[in-house]
Amino acid sequence: MYSETTALNQYRFAAFEIPATGRSHQHLIWGHGWGQSSAAFTPLAEALKPFASSVLIDFPGFGKSALPPASWGTADYADAVAQWLQSQSRSQLIWIGHSFGGRVGIQLAARHPQLLAGMVLIASAGLPRKRTPLQRIRFSLRRTFFKTAKRLLREGPQLEQLRQRMGSADYRSAGALRPVFNRVVSEDLTEVAPKVQCPTLLIYGREDTETPPEMGQRLKGLIPGAELTVLDGFGHLNILNEGRHQVALQIRRFLQSLPQ
Question: Which of 8, 121, 166, 254 is 20 to 30 A (C-alpha) from 136?
Answer without folding.
Answer: 121
